[in-house]
Structures are given as structure tokens and as C-alpha cells.
Amino acid sequence: MAENRKPTAYAIGLDVGGTKIAAGLVAFPQGVVLARRTIPTLALRDGQAVLSDAIALAESLMEEAEERRLRTLGIGVGVPELVDPEGNITSTHSLAWQDMPVQAEFSRHGPTVVESDVRAGALAEAMYGAGREYRLFVYVTVGTGISSTMVQDGRPFAGARGNALVMASSPFTVECDACGKALSPILEDIASGPALVERYNRYSSGAARTGEDVTIAAAQGDEAALRVVRSAGEALGNSVAFLVNVMDPEAIVVGGGLGSSGGQFWDSFVASTRAHIWAENSRGLPIHAAAMGADSGLIGAAASAFRRAEL
Q: Which of 149, 175, 177, 273 has its CA 20 to 30 A from that of 96?
């Protein structure tokens, strides 16, 4: 008897970041990228200029799909911002797209879903990556920023307003017992890629430009880099353990350029996470590096459009 297979469908996914926009034509249900494009975001420009470039990128991939005689079901757009359940962008952390009709502009070219990049990446991991075998897992992405989402039954949880992803941008205020000073540390100022650069350059005579520069220096035994990387991993683990204590997931999946970098950062993060998990039978939960790599954002964005078309 022939195996019953779903026919192949196609969608376009865009991963719009502060540095670059990656886009791809993706085949489903396989999750294979058939064609891709990448351009610099140049995010300091006005929002309309960035939006025009992103739409042109989608149009280019739609033209390629037509040349291949492939009918696309829609467009998915992942952004490093807060996105409400209706697809409206409600923050301006990296892109000046708040209050702009981003979804409506893309929809002129096909049915469009706008989603936060962390939920797009989590969806890709749930469908094809390290989260595939779990019903309930926490996805954390660490790079230029730090975000998280809970994934249940293959669906990232957005919350009532789309804001269930902010784990590292708000201060944790505490008073120092020794001096009485009010401290308000922010995780992104300690453990993100830009934070590693700023802290390393402050403590050493080095001139790191990226988080990767700092992790490489740590791997080579640079004491200042080791101190920065270890403390960053420890701070991240403390926060991720809090998510475990509150949500009780089966596993943790960590993506992003820094989150999946391995080495001392990863070792410190894992040890700190386990040390701060309260329940003994949760402490040994699996902690995985994301499996989808640099394509997770665009595949997950396209998957959002594919899933919407299936409903």
C-alpha cells in the first residue's frame, strides 16, 4: 500500500533582524529552504525604507516561485519586536515599525502573518528541530537580545497581548545588604552579545566588536573574557531556571548566535540553570542547543504562514 503523504506546499519566510534580513522560499511539510536571499537591514533608516526593502525581498522570492511553477500559500514575517495577536508590532526596540501597517503592506502580495522572531524560531524547533520530541518546552534565544517562549503541543505561547517573551529587558531591583544601594541589573546588559562586548572592552585592553570575539578570547584563556563569559552564562542560567520553576517544561532549547555558541558560555549557563532549579526531579531536565541554526527564523516565519493557510 502506498504511503499517504501530504502534497508539498510552499510559503515565503522573512527573518527581519536589526543587522540583516534573511528570506527564503520554504517547502512544507518538509521544511526545506529551496531559495534564499539576504540583505543588510540598515535599521537606522526610517521604517518605510526598511519595509520597502523587505517587501522587495519577498517579491523576488515570489517571482522565483512563479518561475518554478510553485504556488505560494502566503508570507511569514518574523521581527525582533513585540507583536500582538492581530499581527500589529507594538514596540520599537530594533525596528521603527510600530504603528506601521506592516501586515497590510505585505498582504498586498499574499496572505501574511507577522510574528515575533522568538516565536518563529520556536515554531521551527518544534516542527523540525530540538523541540520536536517534546510536548512542552521552553525556547530561549540569545544574541543581540534575549527572549523566550513556552511551546505547548507545537504552538508557541503568545500571552494575552503577544508580550509573553520579555525575559531579559526589564530590571530586577534589589537592595545591597552591605551598602544599602538599590541595584537594578538587567539581564540583557549582562548576557547578550552586545553586553559581552561592552563588558569585555571595559575590563580589558581588548577591542572586541562581537560577542563571538569575546567567546573566542575566553576559549584562548583570556582572563577578562573568561570572567565576562562565565558571569553572563551564570546570569542567563539564573533567569532560565526561574522559567523552569514557574512553567515546569519537559526541556529547554536554546538558540541564537550566542546561545548556541558552546564553550565556557554554554557550560556556565547549564551549570547555573541546574543550580537554580528548585525541584529535584526537574533539575536534570534536557537542555539542548537549537538544531535549526541560522535558518530557524525564516523557516519558522514561513511555517506561521503555512499553518495559517491550513486553518
A: 149
pLDDT tens digits for range 52-68: 999 999 999 999 999 99
Q: What is the pTM of this model?
A: 0.93
**Domain range summary for the chain, segments of one domain joined by +:** 9-127+294-310, 132-291
Q: Which CATH architecture has domain 132-291?
A: 2-Layer Sandwich (3.30)
Q: Which residues of the chain have pLDDT under 70?
A: 1-6, 183, 311
CATH of 9-127+294-310 given 3.30.420.40, 3.40.250.10, 2.60.40.1930, 3.40.50.2300: 3.30.420.40
Identify the residue whose cell numbers are 562581537. Answer: 210
Taking CA atoms, 296 is separated from 19, 117, 124, 140, 179, in Å, by 16, 9, 6, 13, 45
